[in-house]
Design a protein that fits this description.
CATH superfamily of the largest domain: GntR ligand-binding domain-like
Largest sheet: 2 strands, antiparallel
Order of helices and strands: HHHEEHHHHHHH
Protein name: DNA-binding transcriptional regulator, GntR family
InterPro entries: GntR_C, TF_FadR/GntR_C, Tscrpt_reg_HTH_GntR, WH-like_DNA-bd_sf, WH_DNA-bd_sf
Strand content: under 5%
Number of helices: 10
Number of strands: 2
Helix content: 55-70%
Distance between the termini: 59 Å
Organism: Klenkia taihuensis
Number of domains: 2
CATH topology of the largest domain: Four Helix Bundle (Hemerythrin (Met), subunit A)
Radius of gyration: 20 Å
Keywords: DNA-binding, Transcription, Transcription regulation
CATH architecture of the largest domain: Up-down Bundle
GO molecular function: DNA binding; DNA-binding transcription factor activity
Amino acid sequence: MPRRREAPPGPTAVDRLAADLRRQVLAGELGPGEPVREEDLAAATGASRHTVRAVLARLADERLLVAEPYRGVRVTAFADSDVVALQELRGALESAAVQLLADAHGPRWPAAVLAPARTAVAALGALAGDDWPAVAAAHARVHTALVTAAGSPRITDAYTRLHSELLLLLVHVAPAYDVARLVAEHEAYLDDVQARGPVAVREHLAGSTAAILAARGVRGGGAAAAR
């Protein structure tokens, strides 16, 4: 008699609540520095305090939340120094991935290598310009696809760990932009990294950092305290 296949386990209460809270944070429904109180979350969702504590710990590990003595848990807020440090780390990882690709393929990479990143650019272009969180997520997928193309599990894992924090930074900033310009810039970027490697990465991210800092200045974000 054939053995009956067991269904894979479904999401746990922690998974479900973490996904919902992550969505609220990354949609900007909870602003930078806003408190996230364990007792309020438990009362609003009917979850146990144990479940809520596990959720808050998970999102703190993703750097979407920060827990401070005597201040409790709050949505992460970025100082300008945090922006620069995060972009520098991102740049180091993306440069390493691009160098591996250059070493393997020279100045013209096979179409199959770039296909996921080009598909991500096309998906970015299909979005409406008034949904900034969706645009920010699609933009991040372009860079993640490029890093993943290098085929280094360690670089990809380290880069992926920055994903939520980078999205939160972009959602809090919402710089002046239009989707068509972002698409054109990233189409050019995918050509540029083949020709100039890590130099193109550094220039691209330096421009990104400058734009983020300028947008924070317009919105008063540059005065925000670190976390």
